[in-house]
């Protein structure tokens, strides 16, 4: 039985798997706007209820659409969740590139320090804050969603970029004597992770950009060698 609901038509007799959705011809801009609206709704519902307890029906209703609209853009809830993360994800290497392009700084330590500051500024933005809070504090193991593996992958990517900078600083004699770049990388990664975890758990507890920035500067003062 083909049922028409608004702009969507789906096969109401399907008993398993995603709904079979037929969409009318739409412009690329309209399709992208619909996709963004669904992601906005998912962000709010996941943040409120947690990923495992949120249903696609709740997300569709929150967006003012049908569940079929979700299946037109996303395979399942896991696919929707991954798209939500990718919307705010910016590899640390790109933060480093931004600093290089806008400041013209050559020092690997100063480039890394400014990139760390910029990462805190980004996380303070509402969309980034909610999405990272979902991943860290409101996401349980569910179906194809493994939050621990996602977090570990992000940490590994970040550490790789940090180590590259700190290795370069070490080769230039810019790290404190006796400090290995591996140790400096672990120090920096641990501090940033702790800052973000604590702040996302209770954003009112301290100003991330100010106090976090001061801690970043203090750490870089400790690991740098000024002969």
Model description:
With 227 residues, the protein is mainly alpha-helical. It has 2 domains: 2-77, Tetracycline Repressor, domain 2 (Orthogonal Bundle); 89-223, Tetracycline Repressor, domain 2, CATH 1.10.357. The protein has helices at 28-49, 56-63, 67-73, 77-88, 92-103, 108-124, 126-137, 147-171, 181-201, 208-223; strands spanning 2-5, 8-11, 21-22. A hairpin with a 2-residue loop joins strand 1 (2-5) and strand 2 (8-11). It comes from Modicisalibacter xianhensis. GO terms for molecular function: DNA-binding transcription factor activity; transcription cis-regulatory region binding.
Index terms:
single chain; 227 residues; mainly alpha; Tetracycline Repressor, domain 2; 2 domains; 3-stranded antiparallel beta sheet; elongated; disordered N terminus
Task: Compose a concise summary of this entry.
Keywords: DNA-binding, Repressor, Transcription, Transcription regulation. By secondary structure, the protein is mainly alpha-helical.
* CATH uppermost class of the largest domain: Mainly Alpha
The count of helical stretches stands at 10
Helix content: 55-70%
What is the H-and-E element order? EEEHHHHHHHHHH
Overall structural domain count: 2
**Low-pLDDT residue intervals, each spanning 5 or more residues:** 1-17, 19-23
* CATH architecture classification of the largest domain: Orthogonal Bundle
Q: What strand order characterises the main sheet?
A: 1-2-3
CATH homology group of the largest domain: Tetracycline Repressor, domain 2
**Average pLDDT over all residues:** 85
Major sheet: 3 strands, antiparallel
Kindly provide the radius of gyration, computed on alpha-carbon positions and rounded to a whole number of angstroms. Answer: 22 Å
Q: What oligomeric state best describes the polypeptide chains here?
A: single chain
| CATH fold descriptor of the largest domain | Tetracycline Repressor, domain 2
Number of strands: 3
Strand content: under 5%
What gross morphology would you assign? elongated
Distance between the termini: 79 Å
Category by helix and strand content:
mainly alpha
Domain HTH tetR-type: 32-92
GO molecular function: DNA-binding transcription factor activity; transcription cis-regulatory region binding
Protein name: Transcriptional regulator, TetR family
InterPro entries: Homeodomain-like_sf (IPR009057), HTH-type_TetR-like_transc_reg (IPR050109), HTH_TetR (IPR001647), Tet_transcr_reg_TetR-rel_C_sf (IPR036271), Tscrpt_reg_MAATS_C (IPR013572)
């Amino acid at each position: 039985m083909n049922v028409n609901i608004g702009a969507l038509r789906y096969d109401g007799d399907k008993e398993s798997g995603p709904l079979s959705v037929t969409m009318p011809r739409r412009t690329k801009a309209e399709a992208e706007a619909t996709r963004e609206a669904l992601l906005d709704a998912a962000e709010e519902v996941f943040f409120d209820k947690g990923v495992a307890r949120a249903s696609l029906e709740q997300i569709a209703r929150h967006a003012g659409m049908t569940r079929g609209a979700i299946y037109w853009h996303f395979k399942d809830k896991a696919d929707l969740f991954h798209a939500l993360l990718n919307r705010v994800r910016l590899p640390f290497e790109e933060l480093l590139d931004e600093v290089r392009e806008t400041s013209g700084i050559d020092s690997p330590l100063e480039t890394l320090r400014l990139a760390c500051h910029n990462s805190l500024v980004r996380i303070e933005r509402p969309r980034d804050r909610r999405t990272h809070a979902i991943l860290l504090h409101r996401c349980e193991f569910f179906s194809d969603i493994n939050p621990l593996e996602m977090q570990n992958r992000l940490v590994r990517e970040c550490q790789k970029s940090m180590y590259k900078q700190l290795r370069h600083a070490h080769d230039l004699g810019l790290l404190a004597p006796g400090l290995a770049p591996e140790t400096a990388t672990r120090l920096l990664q641990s501090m940033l992770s702790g800052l973000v975890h604590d702040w996302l758990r209770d954003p009112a507890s301290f100003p991330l950009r100010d106090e976090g920035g001061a801690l970043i500067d203090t750490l870089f003062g400790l690991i740098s060698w000024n002969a």
